[in-house]
Each structure stands twice: as C-alpha cells, then as structure tokens.
C-alpha cells in the first residue's frame, strides 16, 4: 500500500499560504531544491486543488528553458513523469500530460488509489489536504519551515484537527529552512 504524504513550505508560525506576500527565504536555494527532488522523485501521483495545480503546471514546460540549472530540469522531468489528479469544480481542462480532473474529492476513491498504487502519492495545498486529513488519509506530513513569521493566511494544519505524530526525520539547511517529517501514529 502506498503512503499519502502532505508536504508544503510553511512559515515559522504555521502558515502554508501567507495572507500578504510570500513565506520568506530559504525555499528556493539549490541545496533545498536538490533535497526536494530526491525526496519526491518516487512519487507516482500528485493530488492537487485547482490553485495548486495552476502553480505547479509551470513544471510541464520548465525544462524548455535553456539556462535552467540541472536541479530544476531534474525536478521538471520527475514532475512530468508522475500522474496528476486535479480536484476542481471550475477547471475546464488541463495543460499537462498525465493529468485528469475530478470534480469532487472522494475519500474512498483515494483509499482505493493508495491501496492499488506502486508509488506514494502526495496531497498538495492546504484546502485539499484539510479534506484528506479529515478523512484520515494522510500517512506522513513533510514540513519545510521557513525563518519567517507571516502573521496570517492559510494554516498548514486545518483548525480543529488533533493528530498524534512521530517525528521520523529532520534536517536544517544553510538557508535556515528546517525540514521535519512526521508519521501518523
């Protein structure tokens, strides 16, 4: 059975999306990006909401940029190799290969997908992740914590959730970014 992983960059005060501006420094340097490449290369399927998909579809054409560094080109190749499911009631079409639209998030369908998958899945974006968390589908949480406090926005964890987690891996990067991987008990 494959794992469902929820991973996002988050501010020091727990926001995966800032109310104003970005989440701060540290998320885009080569060391971090190379680590992310290695971490998510085995992912077979990405589960996205519309907004996250619209952000990530950049990787469909990123390798076409001739001056892109090798770690960027590698991430693009890995992303394009994976399946993508976009949950949206408004998106009419997708602009990336290996991508399909689902109109509703069906926890039973995701359970079946996990049971049948040969490779792990990720759920990306705080809104879609909140649904997966509420359904008890998330097996691991990968937080990339920046050095910034942003004071508001969309939280990494939805309000009202209680989870008991085990810390299974951690790493600090030269940029100040901290990676923490937790497993559901």
Automatic annotation (TrEMBL):
Q: Which InterPro entries match?
A: DHFR-like_dom_sf, RibDG_C, Riboflavin_Biosynth_HTPR
Under the heading Gene3D superfamilies, the entry gives: Dihydrofolate Reductase, subunit A
Q: Identify the residues that the record assigns to the Bacterial bifunctional deaminase-reductase C-terminal domain, covering every copy.
A: 3-178
GO-annotated biological processes: riboflavin biosynthetic process
Alphabetically, the GO molecular function entries are:
5-amino-6-(5-phosphoribosylamino)uracil reductase activity
PANTHER family, sorted: 2,5-DIAMINO-6-RIBOSYLAMINO-4(3H)-PYRIMIDINONE 5'-PHOSPHATE REDUCTASE (PTHR38011:SF11), DIHYDROFOLATE REDUCTASE FAMILY PROTEIN (AFU_ORTHOLOGUE AFUA_8G06820) (PTHR38011)
What name appears for this protein in its UniProt entry? Deaminase
Q: Which lineage?
A: Bacteria, Bacillati, Actinomycetota, Actinomycetes, Kitasatosporales
